[in-house]
Amino acid sequence: MRVGRLWNTGWLLLSLASLFWAGNAVVGRGASELIPPIGLAFWRWVLATIALLPLAWPHVKRDWPVLVKAWPLVALLAFLGLAGFNAIFYTALHSTTAINSVLLQSATPPLILLFSFFLFRERVGLNQIAGLVVAIAGVIEIVTEGRPLSVLQLRLNIGDALVLVCVAFYALYSALLRKKPAVHPLSFLFGTFVASVVMLLPPYVLEHLSGEVVEPTPPVLLALGYVALFPSILAYLFFNRGVELMGANRAGQFVHLMPGFGALLSVMFLGEALRPFHGVGMALILGGIVLSSMGPKKVVEP
């Protein structure tokens, strides 16, 4: 497929982004004993920034005044979707499985609907509200390992709870993308990468001084190479373009490809096992998506 055609095929761009992000969860979990979480996030964006620079620089030079003027929004988007998200996500992978992490991220699309409604008064159908409720039930099924009533006793795995924080961050990032500055996609991506490196530098230094050092062994370098290229440059470029082509709400639905990709990769490369509550939770989450895309189009007005 020609590059120009790929760049204008939203469903394919978003599908590839989901595949690369599923791989990020698997690599992050697999490398959790080799690379400290802040170090992994920091070097991910350092390497991604260096790799992107030759392609982005001609556009950045032209768009720099716009990026500087919009720096508060660029910084916020960088924190929500890149720096904060990944630092917390890699920390979560020390105490949850890759399968859980990708399944829980399926809660992102319903939350995008919620944020779009409250922030931009985007009309929400009653069927979408029903879908949100069902999807949340699926999330509860997964985080409680099939014991939903344990929510009343707050028996949540800390890793799962951190993943849900990441889900909220990314849903807000996706909803806010409509407000991003009108610059070339590579300029915007470069701006968020640089902002992420700046944000992560202080906690990285503290982590390093505490004795958690990133050792440049072959497995570590291989993991850093993957997370810097595929779930960073390519996935974010593809996802941002997909939002432009299809809108945040429709683009968010493609996050639901991550569980399938992630479960397959986790079983293949990490030897993790799928358990019954994973299937029940995933069925509920997907059911919520189906509900949100069908039924009568009654609308809740702001």
Fold blueprint:
Layout: H1 3-7, H2 10-30, H3 37-69, H4 71-92, H5 98-104, H6 108-120, E1 124-125, H7 126-143, H8 158-176, H9 185-209, H10 218-246, H11 248-252, H12 258-269, H13 276-292, E2 299-300
Antiparallel strand pairs: 1-2
Helix pairs in contact: 2-5, 2-10, 2-12, 3-4, 3-9, 3-10, 4-8, 4-9, 5-12, 6-8, 7-13
Could you say which structural class the secondary elements and strand pairing correspond to?
A: mainly alpha
Secondary structure tally, helices:
13
Q: What general outline do the C-alpha atoms trace?
A: globular
Span of the ends, CA to CA? 43 Å
Low-pLDDT segments, ≥5 res = 295-302
Question: What are the secondary-structure elements, in order, as H or E?
Answer: HHHHHHEHHHHHHHE
Number of domains: 1
Query: Count the strands?
Result: 2
Oligomeric state: single chain
Give structural notes:
The radius of gyration is 19 Å and the shape is globular. Strands 1-2 form a two-stranded antiparallel sheet. It is built from 13 helices and 2 strands. It has one domain. Residues 295-302 have low confidence and may be disordered. It has helices spanning 3-7, 10-30, 37-69, 71-92, 98-104, 108-120, 126-143, 158-176, 185-209, 218-246, 248-252, 258-269, 276-292, and strands at 124-125, 299-300. Helix 2 runs antiparallel to helix 10 (218-246) and helix 2 runs parallel beside helix 12 (258-269). The protein is an all-alpha fold and 302 residues long.
